[in-house]
């Protein structure tokens, strides 16, 4: 692609990317660190320059860091937020060249071949990068060379520029770790006395290959340009958004729904090609007075079927104030999920489709989080044998793994008078007198020792299923450790 031109690669390294992101929004004039949990201990994830000057470093136990620096201010690292910020930087770097890729979690690599003259030369381009990043509150170190490996080494160990064809001299005095090798290989080379890249280059290759394998010399050859290494631009995530500009303003619900149908057809075609489904959709309707009305649709299940999604928009669009008319419509899937391939049954699929659409319709009125379902839980304790989860974000499935049936109605244990280990006959409950027709039991249930539950401090319980002559079918239990009888539930 660039025949006749020497390839020129820039490596950007952000040594304090995570902490700089936080401190850009809130300036802290004190030692600052971000922490993360690893191997049952909190460790330092990233820190500012002031904390580094006090001797703190990445991976250090947080307790040790506080002992060295009692004034240390810390926050928990937000890894997803760091990744999103890294992506923003990658997109920003395309102002200098179209070939920008990731270089680890805190770096970028740019192929600026043929682009430096647009800024007056390489020195001016690097100065522009440093200036813009400094104004943004980001620390950066830059390396420029003919190869990706040499640029990486200069950014992290030298922060310099290698002239065209002068990589070997520029990186000769750098440590062998600058070749992007692992720590074990680095330590082994230093024990052999090979501390710099020049030492490694002047050593016979055959013994090194036998001792360390081909990867070590491959990294050396990539840095020196003897083996090619491409810079592949990182692919931006697919944007699921479509827009429709209208020649004449519209205001009727039917017209807006017709425009929504056209947008959904285009959006769902993109979703279907990517095997994705939309779960949250935003519709922005711009009026002629430049005011924007928004309609949000949250789906119970990710969908990419326009015929199913379109009717669900009707309630929200009917509530829109069109003013003097709408001249632009924009539909965006702000949350999407991958849809796995599955074998569908026409009966089961049809029922599930109707249920999902019903949940979505109800959710638009009362909120998806307010539509809940019971799910089995792995516990033999009656109160813990189920969980309540939003129906839109959970799948029905599984069965209650119990040996004996459980009552339909479960309430807090209510004491009744009785003695002995057999159910009392007769007994009074809720101001009513009952006589036992049949009693089945006992079923002994022991408390779970690994969980603290105040209601189970009395120890084991012996449960009985009692059919009364009055027609009520009750669930009673007896506590041997502190003798007493209780009603805990009622069967249908």
What this model shows, in words?
The chain has 492 residues and is of the alpha+beta class. Among the domains are: 9-143, MutS, DNA mismatch repair protein, domain I (3-Layer(aba) Sandwich); 241-338, DNA polymerase, Y-family, little finger domain (Dna Ligase, domain 1, 2-Layer Sandwich), CATH 3.30.1490; 409-490. It has helices spanning 17-25, 49-53, 62-68, 79-93, 122-135, 148-157, 167-171, 183-191, 197-201, 205-212, 214-224, 253-273, 306-309, 314-318, 346-366; strands at 9-13, 32-38, 41-47, 73-76, 100-102, 107-111, 141-145, 241-250, 276-287, 292-303, 326-338, 372-376, 386-390, 409-416, 427-429, 432-434, 436-445, 461-468, 473-478, 485-490. The chain has a five-stranded antiparallel beta sheet with strand order 14-20-19-18-17, with no helix packed on it. The chain has a four-stranded antiparallel beta sheet with strand order 5-6-1-7. Strand 19 and strand 20 form a beta hairpin. It is extended and about 100 Å long. The termini are far apart.
Mean pLDDT over the residues: 87
Shape verdict:
extended
Strand content: 25-35%
Structural class category: alpha+beta
Rg calc: 34 Å
The count of β-strands is 20
Tell me the major beta sheet.
5 strands, antiparallel
CATH topology name of one domain, in short, is: MutS, DNA mismatch repair protein, domain I
- The percent of residues in helical segments reads 25-40%
Strand line-up across the major sheet: 14-20-19-18-17
Q: Which CATH architecture of one domain is right?
A: 3-Layer(aba) Sandwich
């Amino acid at each position: 692609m660039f025949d006749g031109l020497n390839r020129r690669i820039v490596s950007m390294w952000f040594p304090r990317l995570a902490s700089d992101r936080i401190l850009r929004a809130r300036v802290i004039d004190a030692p600052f660190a971000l922490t993360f949990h690893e191997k049952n201990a909190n460790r330092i994830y990233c820190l500012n320059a002031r904390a580094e000057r006090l001797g703190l470093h990445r991976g250090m136990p947080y307790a040790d860091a506080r002992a060295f620096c009692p004034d240390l201010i810390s926050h928990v690292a937000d890894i997803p937020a760091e990744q999103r910020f890294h992506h923003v930087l990658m997109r920003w770097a395309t102002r200098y060249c179209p070939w920008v890729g990731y270089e680890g979690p805190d770096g970028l690599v740019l192929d600026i071949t043929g682009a430096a003259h647009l800024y007056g030369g390489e020195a001016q381009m690097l100065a522009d990068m440093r200036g813009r990043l400094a104004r943004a509150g980001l620390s950066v170190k830059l390396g420029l060379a003919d190869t990706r490996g040499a640029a990486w080494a200069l950014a992290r160990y030298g922060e310099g520029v290698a002239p065209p064809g002068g990589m070997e001299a520029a990186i000769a005095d750098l440590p062998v770790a600058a070749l992007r090798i692992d720590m074990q290989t680095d330590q082994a080379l230093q024990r052999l006395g090979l501390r710099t890249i020049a030492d490694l280059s002047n050593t016979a290759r055959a013994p090194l290959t036998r001792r360390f394998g081909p990867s070590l010399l491959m990294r050396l050859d990539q840095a020196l340009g003897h083996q090619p290494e491409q810079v592949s631009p990182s692919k931006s995530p697919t944007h699921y958004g479509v827009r429709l500009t209208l020649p004449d303003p519209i205001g009727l619900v039917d017209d807006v729904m017709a425009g929504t149908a056209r947008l959904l057809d285009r959006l769902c075609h993109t979703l279907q090609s990517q095997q994705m489904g939309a779960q949250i959709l935003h519709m922005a309707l711009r009026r002629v007075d430049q005011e924007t009305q928004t309609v949000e649709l949250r789906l119970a299940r990710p969908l990419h079927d326009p015929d199913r999604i379109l009717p669900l928009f009707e309630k929200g669009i009917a509530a829109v104030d069109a003013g003097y008319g709408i001249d632009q419509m924009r539909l965006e899937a702000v949350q999407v999920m991958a849809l796995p391939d599955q074998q569908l049954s026409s009966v089961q699929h049809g029922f599930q489709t109707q249920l999902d659409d019903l949940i979505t319709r109800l959710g638009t009125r009362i909120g998806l989080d307010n539509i809940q379902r019971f799910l089995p839980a792995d516990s033999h304790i009656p109160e813990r044998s189920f969980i309540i989860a939003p129906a839109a974000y959970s799948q029905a499935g599984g069965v209650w793994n119990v040996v004996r049936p459980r009552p339909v109605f479960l309430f807090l244990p209510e004491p009744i008078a009785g003695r002995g280990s057999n159910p009392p006959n007769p007994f009074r409950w809720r101001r009513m007198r009952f006589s036992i027709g049949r009693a089945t039991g006992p079923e002994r249930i022991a408390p779970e020792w690994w969980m603290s539950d105040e209601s189970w401090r009395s120890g084991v319980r012996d449960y009985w299923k009692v059919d009364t002559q009055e027609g009520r079918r009750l669930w009673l239990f007896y506590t041997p450790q502190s003798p007493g009888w209780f009603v805990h539930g009622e069967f249908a």
